[in-house]
Amino acid sequence: MKTVTEKLEEIEGLTERGVEYWRARDVMIVLGYDTWQRFDEAIQRAMAAFDATGEQSSHHFSGASKERETGKGPEGKDYFLSRPACYVIAMNGDPRKPEIAEAQRYFAIQTRQMEQIHRRLADEKRVALRDRVTENTRKLGEAAKGAGVTR
Q1: Number of domains in the chain
Q2: Among 16, 46, 67, 111, which residue is least crowded by beta carbons within 10 Å?
């Protein structure tokens, strides 16, 4: 049986510029919602979370409509979602749904891993800078000594 993340990867789309996106109505099914109304409530909470932090939700939730399977016009409201939008929707979803609980667990683990990677990169950058300062201080001391500078 496929995980929620595997299912999300299957429905991922790419723009012509290679930017990933998901259609909200497809994500709704993967996250275990039966009705658009209930899922749209999670979307609205997620949009409010973006707006509350000063980040424009419109950068992550782009309006769209979905064609009916019969080809007779639009099915209704839909969104193109960014990866962060999917993340925040899952975090604002109903954790009693096994799919939401799984997504929340996955995103929590991914967030922690990214924090550790960023911390390790910052540590490596700090060590490299310290080594560079040490080397430049040594070279400066040698140059000063060569020029006859004494304490």
Answers
A1: 1
A2: 16
